[in-house]
């Protein structure tokens, strides 16, 4: 089995700031670091570090070969990442001492994927493999339709939230990931709460309040409390959670066990500064002493 990720690859420029800037405010950063990032890359690294076989479908510019090499180092199959004439996507991230952040994204090469390369990549997928997508690339609807024809499980993280993008794929999903803000945005736009969505399984994360799992087929739901840690940077925590859930399912773990493991991974992640480069591996997660 494998997890296929049609996902973004970014250079994350992380600025440590005394507080998040307000409108019109000029603020001097205390520190600057560059990390491998993008919701797609984060999820691929998380799933690979959770012991899944991960194949990434995406693109970088000629300035982004370092990012592909980094993904390879972390155990991700990069043969379906192409080099574009567009520059590599990047994100400008401001992080304040409590761990909250603001993020500005330039899509770059992430938005110029072509259908021929997508078809070539997924022609190697098997029925029962998982396809995961986010809203930082193009071709989401086309990828979902192709994955359904191939008998793949389709998972989708509705971030950054775009109602038209969500509506385009919603009827074809097996598993939907939302954070609490996105769940409310979707409710406002569609009138549907998570348990009423036309998706068999929905997971809503709520930071320090934990996560909710909804089985819309049976009407059952379950709350998973968050572990108590001191957060220094919440960037990438949701992506880490998603990657770990998908890896657990791909490895045959029950949903509850997959979510519980992902909760531990996300808790460790928020105690670290950075994005894909600092995602914990499975041994970290299993060995960690968490409250």
From TrEMBL:
<feature type="active site" description="Proton acceptor">
    <location>
        <position position="239"/>
    </location>
</feature>
<feature type="binding site">
    <location>
        <begin position="238"/>
        <end position="239"/>
    </location>
    <ligand>
        <name>ATP</name>
    </ligand>
</feature>
<comment type="pathway">
    <text>Carbohydrate metabolism; D-ribose degradation; D-ribose 5-phosphate from beta-D-ribopyranose: step 2/2.</text>
</comment>
<dbReference type="InterPro" id="IPR011611">
    <property type="entry name" value="PfkB_dom"/>
</dbReference>
<keyword id="KW-0630">Potassium</keyword>
<dbReference type="InterPro" id="IPR002139">
    <property type="entry name" value="Ribo/fructo_kinase"/>
</dbReference>
<keyword id="KW-0808">Transferase</keyword>
<feature type="binding site">
    <location>
        <position position="269"/>
    </location>
    <ligand>
        <name>K(+)</name>
    </ligand>
</feature>
<keyword id="KW-0547">Nucleotide-binding</keyword>
<protein>
    <recommendedName>
        <fullName>Ribokinase</fullName>
        <ecNumber>2.7.1.15</ecNumber>
    </recommendedName>
</protein>
<feature type="binding site">
    <location>
        <begin position="205"/>
        <end position="210"/>
    </location>
    <ligand>
        <name>ATP</name>
    </ligand>
</feature>
<dbReference type="GO" id="GO:0004747">
    <property type="term" value="F:ribokinase activity"/>
</dbReference>
<keyword id="KW-0418">Kinase</keyword>
<keyword id="KW-0067">ATP-binding</keyword>
<keyword id="KW-0460">Magnesium</keyword>
<feature type="binding site">
    <location>
        <begin position="10"/>
        <end position="12"/>
    </location>
    <ligand>
        <name>substrate</name>
    </ligand>
</feature>
<keyword id="KW-0479">Metal-binding</keyword>
<feature type="binding site">
    <location>
        <position position="136"/>
    </location>
    <ligand>
        <name>substrate</name>
    </ligand>
</feature>
<feature type="binding site">
    <location>
        <position position="233"/>
    </location>
    <ligand>
        <name>K(+)</name>
    </ligand>
</feature>
<keyword id="KW-0119">Carbohydrate metabolism</keyword>
<keyword id="KW-0963">Cytoplasm</keyword>
<feature type="binding site">
    <location>
        <position position="235"/>
    </location>
    <ligand>
        <name>K(+)</name>
    </ligand>
</feature>
<comment type="similarity">
    <text>Belongs to the carbohydrate kinase PfkB family. Ribokinase subfamily.</text>
</comment>
<feature type="binding site">
    <location>
        <position position="274"/>
    </location>
    <ligand>
        <name>K(+)</name>
    </ligand>
</feature>
<feature type="binding site">
    <location>
        <position position="179"/>
    </location>
    <ligand>
        <name>ATP</name>
    </ligand>
</feature>
<feature type="domain" description="Carbohydrate kinase PfkB">
    <location>
        <begin position="6"/>
        <end position="280"/>
    </location>
</feature>
<comment type="subunit">
    <text>Homodimer.</text>
</comment>
<dbReference type="InterPro" id="IPR029056">
    <property type="entry name" value="Ribokinase-like"/>
</dbReference>
<comment type="function">
    <text>Catalyzes the phosphorylation of ribose at O-5 in a reaction requiring ATP and magnesium. The resulting D-ribose-5-phosphate can then be used either for sythesis of nucleotides, histidine, and tryptophan, or as a component of the pentose phosphate pathway.</text>
</comment>
<dbReference type="Pfam" id="PF00294">
    <property type="entry name" value="PfkB"/>
</dbReference>
<dbReference type="InterPro" id="IPR011877">
    <property type="entry name" value="Ribokinase"/>
</dbReference>
<feature type="binding site">
    <location>
        <position position="239"/>
    </location>
    <ligand>
        <name>substrate</name>
    </ligand>
</feature>
<feature type="binding site">
    <location>
        <begin position="38"/>
        <end position="42"/>
    </location>
    <ligand>
        <name>substrate</name>
    </ligand>
</feature>
<feature type="binding site">
    <location>
        <position position="272"/>
    </location>
    <ligand>
        <name>K(+)</name>
    </ligand>
</feature>
């Amino acid at each position: 089995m494998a997890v296929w990720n049609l996902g973004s690859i970014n250079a994350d420029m992380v600025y440590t700031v005394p507080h998040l800037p307000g409108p019109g405010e000029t603020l001097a950063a205390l520190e600057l670091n560059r990390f491998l990032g993008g919701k797609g890359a984060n999820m691929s690294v998380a799933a690979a570090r959770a012991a899944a076989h991960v194949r990434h479908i995406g693109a970088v510019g000629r300035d982004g070969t370092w990012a592909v090499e980094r993904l390879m180092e972390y155990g991700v199959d990069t043969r379906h990442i192409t080099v574009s004439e567009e520059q590599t996507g990047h994100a400008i991230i401001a992080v304040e001492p409590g761990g909250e952040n603001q993020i500005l994204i330039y899509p770059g090469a992430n938005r110029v994927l072509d259908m021929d390369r997508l078809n070539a990549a997924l022609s190697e997928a098997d029925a029962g493999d998982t396809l995961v997508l986010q809203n930082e690339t193009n071709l989401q609807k086309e990828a979902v339709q192709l994955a359904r024809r191939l008998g793949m499980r389709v998972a989708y993280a509705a971030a950054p939230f775009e109602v038209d993008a969500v509506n385009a794929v919603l009827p074809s999903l097996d598993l939907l990931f939302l954070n609490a803000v996105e769940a409310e945005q979707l409710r406002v736009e569609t009138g549907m709460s998570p348990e009423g969505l036309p998706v068999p399984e929905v997971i809503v994360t709520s930071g320090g309040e934990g996560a909710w799992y909804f089985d819309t087929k049976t009407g059952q739901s379950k709350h998973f409390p968050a572990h108590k840690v001191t957060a220094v940077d919440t960037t990438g925590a949701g992506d880490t959670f998603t990657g770990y859930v998908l890896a657990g399912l791909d490895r045959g773990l029950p949903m509850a066990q997959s979510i519980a493991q992902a909760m531990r991974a996300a808790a460790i992640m928020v105690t670290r500064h950075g994005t894909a480069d600092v995602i914990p591996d499975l041994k970290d997660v299993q060995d960690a002493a968490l409250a």
